[in-house]
Amino acid sequence: MRELLVSLKRRLLHRLLAPLLAEQAEHQRRFIADAAHQLRTPLAGLQSQVEAWAQAARRIVPPGASGSLLVPVEQVDKLRSATRRTTQLANQLLALSRAEARTTSDHPMEPVDLRALAGSVLEAYLDRAVTRHIDLGLAMDEVGPEPPRAWAQEWLLRELLANLVDNAIKYTPEGGTITIGGGLRPSGHAWLSVEDDGPGVPEALLPRLLDRFYRVPGSVGEGTGLGLAIVDEITRVHRGRLLLGPGVGGRGLKVLMEWPGGRDLLAGANP
Predict the structure, then answer these.
(1) What is the overall mean pLDDT for the chain?
(2) Position 137 pLDDT exceeds 70
(3) With contact defined as beta carbons under 8 Å apart, do 214 and 205 qualify?
(4) Can you state the percent helix, strand and coil of the chain, rounding each to 5?
(5) Could you give the number of structural domains in the chain?
(6) 146, 260, 269 from 188: Cα distances, Å
(7) Together in a domain, 116 and 216
């Protein structure tokens, strides 16, 4: 009788889980297909450019002989652009995979100095911002002499800010402003944000920004459409919420992540 009950429980569990597992498998299949499609374009550009140079070189220098080939600067720039895009896409796919894994055992929650974290991300992107004449700055909440600290996975928060700042620099026109913000609420909740005064996004399209590989129609730049999907996944890991909307004065885009940054709050948050 006991064996029969165990068998029935297993069958019932299988029936309940089968649709969920099938949905997850289909979601993973689509993601892999989309990722392969996204990688194919820059890789094809790299291959075609190198093949063209190789053929030109062989017309000038026979096989086995030594020589050199003059390459136009614009072609080198195109090759560098394709290489950068491929590298960024591969790194973002890896970051998304790591965030999805929720590796809390390998990277436990710890108290994170939000001011130091934001400052290090600013330093990493300052040269790019200066090159485009963009004013990249900090606006952290001050709560006394001690820096604001929150419980989190620091490496994921760094990835979150890096993706937001990278996106803002890509889409903010020269001469614009980008501000990294953060701090603690009186409730103990922590927050981080990146705000720009660029072209912004129509309100109706804001929810689509979290879709993987989605880019706003007419967007310029070399984005992959993965930055905000990574940010959304990191928010889920921290049991927080993500808010997207216009910046100050209704201009640009502001992305804000808020999560239960107190240790007790985080432990009691709904998964």
Answers:
(1) 78
(2) yes
(3) no
(4) 55, 15, 30
(5) 2
(6) 15, 7, 12
(7) yes
Question: What is the DSSP pairing of strand 135-140 with strand 177-184?
Answer: parallel
Tokens 């804000």 -> residue:
256
* CATH (domain of 176): 3.30.565.10
Name the CA dihedral angle for 90, 94, 97, 102, rounded to a multiple of 10 degrees.
Answer: -160
Whether residues 37 and 155 fall in one domain: no
Query: Rounded to 10 degrees, what is the CA torsion of 144, 146, 104, 255?
Result: 40
Model confidence band, residue 134 (pLDDT cutoffs 50, 70, 90) = very high
Residue 17: domain span: 2-101
- Supply the pLDDT for residue 19: 61
Question: When comparing pLDDT for 53 and 162, which is higher?
Answer: 162
Segment 76-80 long-range contacts (CB within 8 Å, at least 24 positions apart)? 78/45, 78/49, 79/46, 79/49, 79/50
What is the per-residue pLDDT for 254?
96
Residues 95 and 114 in one domain: no
- Quote the CA–CA distance of 60 and 177 in Å, as a whole number: 49
CB atoms within 10 A of CB 155: 16
Q: DSSP code of 207?
A: G
Question: Tell me, what's the pLDDT at 183?
Answer: 94
Give the residue with greater pLDDT, 195 vs 228. Answer: 195
Q: Are 116 and 140 in contact (CB under 8 A)?
A: no
Quick one: which H or E segment has residue 244?
A: strand 241-245
Q: Is the pLDDT of residue 122 over 80?
A: yes
Same-domain check for residues 179 and 64: no
**72 pLDDT more than 90:** no
